[in-house]
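Might I ask for a little of your time on a matter of protein folding? Here, with my thanks, is the record as I have it:
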Amino acid sequence: MTHPTGPRLALPEGFLMGASTSAHQVEGNNVGSDWWAVENRPGSFVAERSGDAADSFHRWPEDMDLLSELGFNAYRFSIEWARIEPERGHVSRAAVAHYRAMVRGALDRGLTPVVTLHHFTSPKWFSALGGWASPEAPALFAGYAEVAAEILAAGVRHVATINEPNMIALMHTMIRRLGSGREAEGAEGGEEAGAVAFDAGTVEPDADVTRSLIRAHRAAYDVLKAADPGLQVGWTVANQVYQPEPGAAEAARAHAHPREDVFLEAAREDDWIGVQAYTLHRIGPDGPLPVEPGVETTLTGWEFYPEALGLAIRHTVAVVGPHVPVLVTENGIATDDDERRIAYTTGALASLAAALRDGIDVRGYLHWSALDNYEWGSYRPTFGLIAVDPRTFARTPKPSARWLGALARAAHIPDGQPPVGVPADVRSAG
């Protein structure tokens, strides 16, 4: 039985449709990073090590081949500071050449590269200085951005300085709460490690780290624009989609500002802003509320709520302003039921289509994630469009990959809320 396609919206010319990864989560053996150190420390709070991950450090050509063959026109990936500057002041020319080859490889396959400079992991030496809490952090990050500009010069137009700085500031507080002993040492750069189980109601972002991240972003922005004025520079924010219960509007605003809005406000001078949305958080007069009993949740325990994407886009534009274009740099679902992935993404794209129809300047949609990968302590939450065998590293596109790739090739997305199912021609694919 085939599934009716439902109404579709034609995408604007040049719209980016693709998928995202991050270096530590897919490359493997990132031994110079702070998170590798934490994962491999005896008694670590990290349940599962990253190890070889998806071995994308060596298999990136295969990953890009698949994305291109599936029909996508963009790929967001990150470059790893710990590989590029393994010791302070020492630049690995081999690492620079490796990431330049990735940029050229993407372009050769018709994939627009969207490159992130920092996706949660930092060099061990940076964390030993205090990481983002160090007074030196903005200048050190700007120095790294200067080296990264050599990689971007291979043909990158879109670059994100820091991924989800609001999660970094929150996790800095969480790690500090774990204790002042060895367990918390060196964990600074991997702030997202606990984000899968993150309880937004118990943590206040570190204000000093927030200021440091904003200064680092602005310093890197200036360095990158000086190197190439044509670069489109921004950063990405984890959109929590805070929804107030009756009588809780003021509580929601107060909760949102230090956890999200201050980072959006910092993007008002940027060339674009990255929206990263997965679910929503309901806020009562006394703070966040748990997911209601009986509500469908994902493998991360988040509420199944695809409409969060449209709400996140609209909130971002309301804070940043309509003059800054939006890129959806992450959106997806942790599930082992690929039909639910298609259902979720159909709803998310429909909410994006509604934003486009309302005149909001959205330039792209990059699904999280291209591959099943290391989700900061566990391989269990499977977000990928492409499955990866943990022993052979064989890649197998899921039906959702073929479905979403076909939409990308046709340059159309669902418009409205059609009945959701899996077309017969992709049910047995991959």
Notes: The chain has one domain: 8-427. The two ends are 19 Å apart (CA to CA). The first helix runs from residue 23 to 26. DSSP finds 14 helices and 15 strands in the chain.
